[in-house]
Every structure is written in C-alpha cells, then in structure tokens.
Amino acid sequence: MNKKSKALNFATWNVRTLLDSTRLSSITLQRRTAVIAHELKQYNIDIVALQETHLVGQGQLEESSAGYTYLWSGAKDAAQNFYGVAICARTELVQKGIVSEPSCINDRIMSVQVHGATSQTTFICCYAPTLVDDVIVIETFYEELRSVISRIPKTHNVILAGDFNARVGALSSNWRGVIGPHGIGRQNENGLRLLQLCVQEDLCIANTMFQQKDLYKTSWRHPRSKCWHQIDFIIVRRRNRGSILRCRSMRGPNCDTDHLLVRATIHFTKKRFQRNSQTRPKLFNISKLKDSSVRRTFEESIQALYHSEDQHDNRDAEIQWTRVKTSILQSAAAVLGKKPATRWDWFDDSDVEIQEILKKKRRAHLAYIENPTRIHKSEYSRVRGLCQRQIRALKEKWWAEKVKEMQHYMNINDTHNLHRCIKNIAGPVKKALNIVESQDGEHLKTKEEIASRWKQHFCGVLNQDTVVNIDSIQVPIRTTPESTPRDDPPTEAEVRTAIRQLKNHKCPGSDSITAELLKGGEDTVVNMMVTLLKKVWEEKHIPKDWTDAIVVPLHKKGNKAKCDNYRGISLLSVPGKVLSKVLCNRLSPFLETCFSDSQCGFRTERSTVDMIFATRQLVEKTLEQNTELCMAFIDIRKAFDSVNRRALFNILEQLHCPPNAITILRKLHENTHAAVRVDGEEGPSFEVRTGVRQGCVLAPLLFLVYIQIIVAILRLQHHEGVEIIYRADSDMFSRRGLKSQTKVSCSKMAELMFADDCAVVEKTPQALQAAVNIFSQAANSLGLKVNEDKTEVMFVNIQKRLCPFY
C-alpha cells in the first residue's frame, strides 16, 4: 500500500491452483496459499484477483504470517472444481471494512466492494472460457458478466481483473477509448467479445494505456509456439482511466504457474471508518501462570492495585465490581501480556527458514527470466528441486516433533493441549464468508444490516411466547432434604470452592476475565470476591456485566447464509459464575430430593448411557417375554429458552427454597441482555425475557426443577406404565434361589428422561395416547410446547395398531 501517493496496488494472477499436490513426485511447493501470500507481500499487492483456484464452495481463509485473507468462490461439487476464482486482500483492509461484501456469482465470477473516501469501487474477479470451449459456455459467461456490471450503480467505480483468455490486439483506432495506444498482438474471437463488452459498459483496458517494453505487456507464454501473449487484463470505467498510475506485468513473482502477475497502481483514497466503541476482548498469555513466581507477582500486583483505590467507594456493589475488574485486568496486562499470535501449522512455525529457502528460488528464477539460457534454466530447475526437498524436510521434522508432543499429551490425559495440536495440524481455518440472508432470502451486504439480522434472529429464538397462569400452578412434589440450605452471604470457603470448580480454557464474557485469572490471583482474588459477593447479597443488586451475555453463532448444518442453521453459544461473565456456583452448590442437595429416578440429565453419576441401556433392556425383555411395548419419544420445542421465569420462581417458592437465594436468582434473570458477536464485533444488544440463562451453571438445575413438575403431573394423573419384576439379592448359581418368590421385587416405569428429552412407555397404544395427552397438557400449562415434527412413536411386538395415534 502506497501511503504517500494514496494509491492501492490491484492485480490479477492465474495461479493454476490453490490446492496442495498430494503426489510425492510433484515439484510444486506445499501450502500454496501461504507461498502465494508471501509473494504478494514481496511485491506490495493490496488486492489481487486469482483464477483457476480449484477450491470447492465458498469461504475465506487467513494467512496470518503474511497478512492476507483469501475469499473464494468455486464449484459446489468437488468433482466439478475445474475452475474457481478468489480475491486475496490484505487482512487489515478486510478487518477495517475497506474490503467487504463478497458476492459469489459462480466458479468464474465473484466480486467485493472496496470503500473509498469519496467513492465506492466494485472489484470483479473473472476467469473466462478459452476459445476451445463451447460457444454456449462462452456466451453464457459474458452474459453473466454483463449482468453483474449492469447492476452496479453508475456512480460506483468498476475494476475488472482476471484471465480473459482473449487477445484484444493493438488497433486502438478501431476501438477508441477502449484500447490505449500501446496494445500488442492480434485480436481473436474472445478479444472481440471482450471489446464489445467494454464498449457497451463504457470500460477501457488499462494494460494498453502505458508505453513500455513488450515483456511488461504480455502475461502468458504459449506452451507450443513459445510466444508471449496478453490475455490477463485489468479493466476500469473510461472516466476513471486518469486514476491509473501504472499497469504492467511483473516477471518476478513465482508460484509455479505459466502466467505472470499483472499489477495496476490506482489512485485511491481509503475511507476512514469510525472505530467501534466496543473494545475487542482482551486475550492474555495465561500460560505464564504455570510459573509460581509469575503467579506470586500477579497476585501482588492485583493486591496493590486493589488497595490503591479509595476504600470509601466500596459501598456500592457496582463500584466494588469495577474495582475488582480493573485490578485484575490491569495486572494481567502488566504481568502476563497479550496472548502470542497463533501459528497455525508447520509453514508458520518454520516461516523464517522457509523464507530463506524461497529467496534462493526467487534469485534463480529472476536470473532465468532476465537471461533465459540453458545454464540458467538448468540452475533454476536444480534450485527448485533443492527448495522442495528442504521444505519437505522441514515439514517432516515438524510432524515428527508434533507427533511426539501429541503422544505426550495423550499419556498424561491433557485433552486441551491435544486438541490444540490437532488444530495446528489441520492448518488455517477455512471459514464461511460473512454472507447472511434476510427473512425474505435476500443477501445482506453491509455490516449494519448483517448485525441487525443476527439481532432479529436471536431475539426471536431467546424470547419465546409463553403464557402461564401463575396462580394455577400447583407443585405436586416435595423436597425431603436432610438439612435446609444456608441463606446467609457466601463464606470464604464457599467462594474458594466455587473458583476452584470453574473450568479452565473457556471463553470469557464481556469483561475478558477468565477462570485462570481468578485462580492465578489465589487468596487475594478470593478475599476480593468474598467482599464483593457479600455486597451483592446485602444490596440484592447484580453488576450489569454479570447479567449480560455475548452470543456466538456456530453453524450446525445446511446453508451457512441462513441464520436458522446456527446454534447460539452464550458467553457469560466468569466472575458472575462464581456467585452462580455458590448458589448451585447450596441448592443442588436440597433440590436433588425432588427429582425422580428416571431423570438422568445433568446429575452426578448419570448419563445418556443409563437411559439408552434401560431402553434397550425394555425392548429386549419385551421381545424375550413376547409381550407388547409402546414408546413415544417426545421433543419439546426450544425447551430451555421457553421456561417462564415467573413460573420458575413460583415453583421454587412452593418448594420452600431459601428466600434470599430466590431473590438473588430473580436478580440474575432480570433485565438480562445479549449481543451477537460476529467476526469479533458485537452487534446491538437486546433484552432476553424468557428461558434459563444459557451458559449459566444454574441453568441445568433450574430446568430440571421446571420439567420435573410435568413428570410429577404425569405420574399423578396416569397410573399405568410398564411393570418391571426383578430379583436383585439371589445367588445366580442357585436354582432354588431363582425359584424363590420372596426375593422378587416389582417397580413401575412410565418414563425415561434426560433433561428435556422424554420417552413415555406403556403397554398399549390407548394408554400411550392418554399418557402423551397428559404430558402435552402439563407442558402447555407451563408454557412449553411439544414439537410434533420431532416426536416419534415406536411399537414393539404389535402387529396391528389397535387405535390411531396422533
């Protein structure tokens, strides 16, 4: 980027492929995206159009070591990835929003918007068919390209860059304003089509505007005739030709392709984007906390900063929380520093050595193109093979070290670092393009529109319409605890236990404080949190940071442009989880007594394995005894997000939970807000009025209490089920004991539960229908709705249904 002249370097380059060769005999270098990115950096390219990428689908990839981001558009099917186009831009231009709004037309055409200070430019990457292709294919390409250009507002600038497989010739007198006075070669059929397009859309070809040697005009050498031709072009609107400072072929860049890179320096004043007032989350180098001396220094820094502020300002819980947060964050920044940049794979880890190797290849290549003799060609071939072997040796060495490292982590059961190694092996992450569809199916372009769409989507998901008659709720269950939970402010022992129970390596909330920072502060942080939680308990006021959430969308399946195909993961404040963990530790033993034995969700020493085993045993014993079994697998639509909060607190009051604990729970669920984070930026916040708090340690416990009411109503109003007769205390090798009737036990099973997933079991279809009706009515009374589309029924040993099931 030329800052002095306020210019950007645009380019086009047919790279032949961005895929790495799987053949051992191949002499092309591995990690082509990284190699090409470093070549672009070497020649100061800001935005480049790449052709023949052979990448499948649409996506983006960042090469952090070189500082470039790839945006690509390819064929949907891997078997049809013959072409493919991509636009590679400096990462800083993408992050600042100067390059944005990618539009993928097909595997031959794509575009991005380049925002200037006074104008907007549409940069289009093209890869035209060759002359040997079918005429219909060629005409279709130019019709699609013409359609793309015609949709661009006339006030916007246009830059076409690509491999057009066309020769426009040098007859500038016949094509005034389209071809400059310095063209080269003869015109062919594709050249005529391209010139006609330029005339219709008022475009001119920048390659033909500058007087220079022929070797700086041509971009491709014919493999048989060995003649050089000009087939890669950069084209602009005719009114903007004065902004082109230089356009020429660059003979130095090398990525094992038969095309030269064509670079155009264009006068361009970048738009100054107003910085987002919301700061990005701070990531600290928490690995330093493994050193005891660093932990001690970190704790002392927190203590000094905490006590340096005015002690009289701690009367308010919000101010007290600000003191705690500031002390921890400033100490982390001073002692730990920023988290080091992620090195994705072997190429990034060996970047210094690889760049030295590539310099040798670059020097040999320059010597050959300046003086293409047999000696220079032979030397270039030798250096090329040597570089390939040296880089392959670096790769094998890196792999050997990484395998040893992974084996070490497996031996000590360190799953976190093992997963990190696997991610490094996979290389740079290929992400989806930031393309989002509106509810009407239209592609949204600006960041503001995309952020508004995400807000609209999750506001609807996290706020379900629930109508519950609070006064009619009758809790048919009772708790039978050995002792009543404490209702006084949290003690030091409880806070210390809660901090120790926090999981490491989890993303922080909006305050950027992780569990490792709380644990690294040791006694100082414990004492600070005890003082803070006592203030919260006394004032019944929750700091705002603790009630806010950041929602991160994660793709589930299907079209990545549709918001419905994403699951939102909520990030909450980790210090706020300390309070939730204290409440959870107090209430869990108390509420555990009201849960039925059939509930295996989020309970100690219970899992889905137990429910699957019980279900299989039911089916196997039914077949073995030649009896009948009917099962309904019921799914509740958005169960956790549909919990009515007023009804939940009413149930807790009827269960005689401690009043202060209920008050704190109410405050944790009042005035809760969320904001969606996409590409590191948070959109506008919205209020969340229903459901338990996703990501909160209390959410599973509170939901189990809520859904247990439905199970209790089912058991109270429906007395049937499947009887299980078993013998548990007899010697299995004693025939007399097996025949004894005194050692036989009998129990009844009506449902199998794992959180919101329920399987109702009965002997007959009529009984199953009655049980499902009761379950559905009980769920509706609490604001929950049965998802009929996902609810399934299974009949075992019933040849013909005795009644219709609906």
TrEMBL record:
Biological process annotations from GO: DNA biosynthetic process
GO molecular function: catalytic activity
InterPro entries in UniProt: DNA/RNA_pol_sf, Endo/exonu/phosph_ase_sf, Endo/exonuclease/phosphatase, RT_dom
Pfam families, A to Z: Exo_endo_phos (PF03372), RVT_1 (PF00078)
Entry's transmembrane regions: none
Reverse transcriptase domain sequence ranges: 535-806
PROSITE patterns: RT_POL
Protein's UniProt name: Craniofacial development protein 2
Species in which this protein is naturally found: Cacopsylla melanoneura
